[in-house]
Structures are given as C-alpha cells and as structure tokens.
Amino acid sequence: MMNSTKSRRKIVPAVVENGDTADKQDQLLLSSAICNGEDLGPFVRKVFASGKPETLLHHLKHFTKSKESEIEDVCRAHYQDFIMAVDDLRSLLSDVDSLKSSLSNSNSKLQNVAVPLLTSLDSYVEAKNKCSNIALAINSLNTCVQLMELCSRANLHLTKNNFYMALKCLDSIETTFHDKTPSSTLKRMLEKQIPAIRAHIERKVSKEFGDWLVEIRTVSRNLGQLAIGQASAARQREEELRIKQRQAEEQSRLSLRDCVYALEEEDDDEIDGENGILGFDLTPLYKGYHVHQTLGLEDRFKQYYFENRKLQLTSDFQVSSMTPFLESHQTFFAQIAGFFIVEDRVLRTGGGLISKMDVENLWDTAVSKMCSVLEDQFSRMQTANHLLLIKDYVSLLGVTLRRFGYPIDALLDVLSKHRDKYHELLLSDCRKQFAEALAADKFEQMYMKKEYEYSMNVLSFQIQTSNIMPAFPYVAPFSSTVPDCCRIVRSFIEDSVSFMSYGGQLEFYDVVKKFLDKLLSEVLDGALLKVITGSITGVTQAMQMAANMAVFERACDFFFRHAAQLSGIPLRIAERGRRQFPLIKARDAAEETLSGLLKQKVDGFLLLIENVNWMADDPPPGGNEYVNEVIIFLETLVSTAQQILPVQVLKRVIQEVLSHISEMIVGALLGESVKRFSINAIMGLDIDVRLLESFAENQAPLLSESDANQLKSALVESRQLVNLLLSNHPENFLNPVIRERSYNALDYRKVVAISEKLKDQSDRLFGSFGTRGARQNPKKKSLDALIKRLKDAN
Questions:
Q1: What per-residue confidence (pLDDT) applies to 790?
Q2: How far apart are CA 721 and CA 689, in angstroms?
Q3: So what's the pLDDT on residue 577?
Q4: How far apart are CA 170 and CA 176, in angstroms?
Q5: Which distant-in-sequence residues (6+ apart) come within 8 Å of 339 by Cβ?
Q6: What region holds the Exocyst complex subunit EXOC6/Sec15 C-terminal domain (predicted)?
Q7: Distance between CA 88 and CA 100 in Å, rounded?
Q8: How far apart are CA 300 and CA 293, in angstroms?
Q9: Of 393, 662, 667, 748, whose CB has the highest number of CB atoms within 10 Å?
Q10: Which is more confident, 5 or 382?
Q11: In the prediction, which pLDDT does 763 show?
Q12: The pLDDT of residue 794
C-alpha cells in the first residue's frame, strides 16, 4: 500500500465550466489536493477565515463517499488474487516451522562447539589488549627518552654557549615531540621552559654582540693601521724596484755592455682576514645573526646591526680639537679604513646581513666627511711637510680601500685640488732654506777629506767633471752653497713627486717640471741674485760665485733628469724638452759682478796711463808701465781662476776685462787730460795693444785657438784706432768697403776728436828751421782731409 501510495499519479483538477458555482470549484480543488498529498492547511485557514467550516466538512464527507466506491471496485477486482496469496502463505508457514527446528538444532550444536573457542578467544583478546597497552607504554617511554635526550643535548649546548644548536634542538622538540608527548607534566614543562630558554639565548647573544660592537672599534683601528702599513710596505718595495730600474737605466746609458738584469721574487701579502695577516673574529656577529634567524628575528637584527654600525661610523668622524690633526690623522683614517674592511668582509660572508647598497651609502657618507675634514685641515696648514704627510697617508688609505672595491676618486680630487698650495708652501720653505744656505756660505772652495764626502757632495748630484775618482784630500771648485742648494732642490723634487705620485694622475712630470722651473728660475735664481748684488764685495767671492754658477749649470741638468726618473719618464723624452739654463740671470749677474770687480782692479793699474809721455820723441821699447802692470795682473788672475772657473766662464770674464782695457785706452786719448799726442805715443800704444794681444794669444793652450781669437777681438777698438792713426792713408776710413773690413769698431766722432789731437813731427819746436819751405807731410795732409770730410759729414 505504501508503494502504491508513493507511485500515485498527480491528479490535476478538471477545468470547471463557466456555469459551475464557486462551491463546486472549491470541492474540486480540495479533492485534487488530497489525491496529490498536498497540505490542506490553506483550505482550513480559508474556511475559518470566511467563518464557514461546515462547507469544508461537507466537502470532506463528499470526498470520502466518492473514494469508498472506488475501494469496493478495487477489492472486487483483486479478491481472487488475495485468496491465492493466503494459500501461499499457509504453505510457507509449514516450511518456516521446519526451518526453525533445523536452525534450533544447528544452534545447539554450534553452542556446544563454540563455547571453548569463545573462551580461548576471550583470553586472546585480553592478552592482545595487554600487549597493545605494553607496546603503547614502550612507545611512550621511547618518545620520552628521545625527548629527554634532546633536552639533555639542548642543555649541553647551552652550557657550551652553542646557542644555534640549542635552538635547533628546541625547534626539533617543538616540531617532533610537542604533540606526541604522552606526559602532560612534560608537556607543561616544555611549554614553560622553551620560551624561557629562547629568551635567555636572545639576551646572551645580544650581550655578546654588544661586546663585539665595542671590541670591533679597537680591532678596526688596528686593522686599518695594519692594512695601510701593508700598502706602505708594498709602495716601498715598488720604490726600491724603481730605484734599481733607474740604476740599471743609468748603467745602460753609460755602458751597454755592463748591464745586469735579475728577476726577483716578490712577496705579495694578501689582505685576507681568513688566511692572511689581517685576521679578525666575526664569530659573535654571525652567531647573533644565525640565532636571530632561528628565532625569526632576522630583520630586526639586521636593522639593529646597521643602526649601531652607522652610529659607530658617525662617532669615528669626530676630529678632536684638543689634538693637532697632524698627530691624530693616522688614527682617524685608520679607524675608517678598518671599519670598511670589516664591512666588506661582512658583505661577502654575512649571508645577507648587510646589503651592498647599505655599504655604498655608508661609504658615500664617509667619503663626504673625509673630504670635508681634509678641505678644512688643508686650508689651515701652512707647512708643506705636514700637508705631504697627510696626503701620503690619505693616498695609502685610498690604495688600501681600492683593493676592496671602494671608489676613491673624490679623495684624490681633494688632494689634486691642493696641489698648487702644497707647492707654494714648498717653494716658501725652499726660499728660506736657500737664504740660510747662502748666508752660511763663506764662498771658499770645499775641502773634502774622504771619499764618502765626495760621493755625498759631488757624485750624488752628477756635478763631477770627470768619472775618475780624485785623490784625497780634494779641493772642489765650488763652495758649500752648491751641494747645500742641490740638496734642497733634490728634496723639493722628491717631495713634489711624492705628492703627485699615487694621486690618480698617471703622467705628472709636466707638473713637477713646471714647479721645478719655478723653483730654479724664481726662487733659487732670486736668492742668488740677492746675494750677488748685496753680499759679494771681493774678487775672490765673485770668482767663487761665478764658479758656483758653472757647477749649477751641470746640476740643473741632473735636476730635470732626476725629476723625470722619479716621475717614470724615459730620459730621452725628458732631454727632448730641455730648456735654457734657468739660473741665467744669476749667472750673468755673477759674471758681471766678477767682471766689474776685475775692471775696478784694472782701473787702478790704468791710472798709470797718466804717466805716459804723449809727446815722446821715441816710442817706449817695452811698452808703457801701465800695460805691464795690467798683464801681470791678468796672468795672475788666469793662473788663479783656471783652478775653479770653467774655461768658457774664464774666457767671458777676461774678454770683458780686455774690452774694458781697450775702451780705457781709447778713452784716455779722448780725455781732456790729453791735449796733444805724437805719433811716437801712438807707437807706444801699438806696443801696449800688441802685448795685450799676445797675452790673449797665449791663452790658446788653456782655452782654444778660436777662444783666444775671441779674446783678441775684445781689443778691436783700440787696435783699429792705432792702426788708423799709424796708417799712411787714413783717408781710407772714408771708403765703406775698407771701413767695414778694417775699421768697423770705430765711431767716426771719436776718430775726429782723437785725430785732431795728433801732432805731426814737423810741428816740433825746432823742426820748422830745417824744413822751411818744404812740402806738407802727405800723411798729415790725408789725416786733415779725413777730419775735414768727417766734420762735413757730421
């Protein structure tokens, strides 16, 4: 019946005709709802709402009556089948009874057989339960044992301050055993102790890291000093290698056959904190970093580390006003160098503890501050040596940090910016040293007793005139001024090259040469000029100064070669750009002073020219007295001067003196003290000039034939005047060709003035008695015609 109910078709009410009443319509809807098993609640509410429940009851009764007839029709249709089904059930009942008895018998037999088995099964189940409990207990004990072993291991790591491994043990306890721990007591203990242990480790590691931050400042300073010291040692080795190379070049320049080449093994100390010399301990830092990574506090530790290191760097920038920067600059720069050496190591091995950008930002800050400090300190310095010391240390700092990849161009720019100031200070120092050296000089030849003195004062400046070692004691041709000034100039070159070296500029010879030119042509030349014009009073001093200038000329060649060698420039290139002697003003002044003093001495002897008999009847056979005195003085001068003066200097000086003598002879004829003179007096002057010319010719072995001729040419004015006055045809002076060839040194005005004073032989007091009525002397006639023509031309 349930199945038939479930499978009933849904009944749809028939369409009501237009003439049906509403009551009929409600009855059809109710019947349809009951047949379809729908909810009758809406119908009930509707009738009660309308106040007519009787209508609903009526419709229900009507539906019941309509269904009773349908039931009867169904029962009639299935009655026979029902009877047959009852019969089947009765026959089935007998079968069931027999089956029941059979099952009862089988059950009895099963009970008899199964009772012992069930008893055994109960015992087995009980035993299995006990075994399971024991296995569970064993597993729990094993878990507890493993847990306790981990706890013991964690405690052991804690006692050994191996915090990273202790934290790893705690992580293993939490991940592996926290949920598996069977003991609630153990679980509570773990929940309480693990956070406490972690907090303890964090405090301990933070303290160790704090101690490391304090210690690393001292370590950084020592580290920076050591690294800069290594850079200094490496630079020293390079300098020694360059010195050997220069010696080899010099040796090859002097003798190509004697060159010796050798390969030397060079020790290269690597700046390595792990295996090298610069070792420093980063264990506390990395321990703290790893521990905080394990604790999940990595970012916080990174920030803490960066902020603390930044504060340390800021404190390193503080320059003490109580200590001169010259004394504290090494510590200042070494501290910064050590700081960035440590940061480079942390960057490369710290596993991301600090980023490259952070290090670059710190370096930019450091460079900016160092540049500011250098600018301030350099602006205050007034001593070149102080500036050089700081520059050298800064350049070593740059070399050191460049090896770690830090850019140092800004530092080098600051050094280059103060290049001119440094050289001006250096020039000022040299000016004082030159003044002191010149003031201490007695202008006496140096006396050297030992070979080392010769090497120190002569060979070291390449001012020797011969490569043969002289016998000792040795008297040098120069005074102490020369080696003293050479040492000052050499020191200037070395200081200049030292400042320019390692400053980022590869080719700096032109700069060194420029300031060397300034030192020689302005400072040294000016100091020598001051001494020459103000302190030289005697011939000996002037001669020594002139000799010194000749030696300085050789020394200047050495200075420029030395500057080129120190600058790494080949000598052939340096010699190409050689300029004129930079001390030419002082040299000329020294020679002028010597010549002037010698002229004063000669003037003393030339006073004897007043004793000349200008109206002599016969010429003096051996020359006039004054010329003999002058020649004795000149010969004495040459024998003395040739010991110290170079031949060219001696030639120039004697040439000036002879030229002065020639001028004085002509001047004597022009002077008012000589009213008239005879031809015999001119013949006497001819002998005087010949004696002087003979003196000049006698200097040929000392000088050379051409130099002797140049000395002789210094007497050209007096010689041409005497030749003209003694000539039989003086009117030839008017011939341009003859005048250019034979009288080019004569001034026609002087010729007129002197010729008018010449007295002819026939004009003597008693000469007219014997020659009365004779013709006029042709020579006198020619001379008068010359005088007349010259006056007309004037």
A1: 63
A2: 11
A3: 57
A4: 10
A5: 220, 224, 309, 312, 313, 316, 366
A6: 411-757
A7: 18
A8: 10
A9: 662
A10: 382
A11: 44
A12: 54
Q: How far apart are CA 156 and CA 603, in angstroms?
A: 112
* Residue 678: strand pairing partners: 759
**pLDDT attached to residue 762:** 45
Q: Which two tokens stand for residue 78?
A: 């299935």
DSSP secondary structure letter of residue 477: S
DSSP code at position 461: G
What is residue 578's DSSP assignment? -
The amino acid at residue 19 is G
Closest CA to 793 of 747, 745, 730: 747
Cβ pair 686, 657 in contact under 8 A? no
Q: Tokens 């060397």 belong to which residue?
A: 516
Alpha-carbon radius of gyration of the chain = 65
Question: In which region does residue 729 sit, left (phi positive, over 0), alpha (psi from -120 to 50) or beta (all else)?
Answer: beta
Look at strands 758-759 and 447-448 and give their pairing: unpaired
Report CA-CA distances (Å) from 598 to 135, 276, 585: 132, 73, 20
pLDDT in tens, 523-564: 988 988 988 888 888 888 888 888 888 888 888 888 888 888
pLDDT of the residue at 791: 62
| DSSP state for residue 536 in the 8-state scheme | -
Model pLDDT for residues 478-525, shown as the tens digit of each residue: 888 889 999 999 999 888 888 887 655 567 788 888 888 888 888 988
Joined tokens for residue 6: 């479930």
Output the pLDDT for position 14. 47
Whether the pLDDT of residue 773 is over 50: the answer is no
Mapped onto helix, strand or coil, the DSSP state of residue 331 is helix
Q: Could you report the per-residue pLDDT of 326-345, keeping only the tens digit for each?
A: 788 888 888 888 889 998 98
Sequence-ordered list of residues with C-beta below 8 angstroms from that of 132, at least 6 positions apart, any chain? none
293-324 confidence digits (pLDDT tens):
777 888 888 888 889 988 988 888 888 777 78
* C-beta of residue 407 within 8 angstroms of C-beta of residue 370: no
More confident residue, 369 or 65: 369
Specify which residues 447 forms β-bridges with. Answer: 475
3-state secondary structure of 496: helix
Whether the predicted model's global pTM rises above the 0.70 cut: no
Coil, helix or strand at residue 448: strand
DSSP assignment of 15-80 equals: PPPTT--HHHHHHHHHHHHHHTT---HHHHHHHHHHT-HHHHHHHHHHHHHHHHHHHHHHHHHHHH
Cα–Cα–Cα angle for 19, 25, 26, rounded to 5 degrees: 155
Taking CA atoms, 603 is separated from 597, 627, 658, in Å, by 10, 11, 12
pLDDT given for residue 3 in this prediction: 44
d(CA 405, CA 363): 11
Q: Could you give the angle at the alpha carbon of 343 between the alpha carbons of 339 and 349, nearest 5°?
A: 145
Contact at 8 Å (CB) between 484 and 441?
A: yes
Instruction: Enumerate the β-bridge partners of residue 758.
Output: 677
Mean pLDDT, the chain, whole residue set: 80
pLDDT of residue 131: 92
Query: Mapping DSSP to helix (H, G, I), strand (E, B) and coil, where does residue 471 land?
Result: coil
Distances (CA, A) of 71 to 75, 170, 305: 6, 83, 98
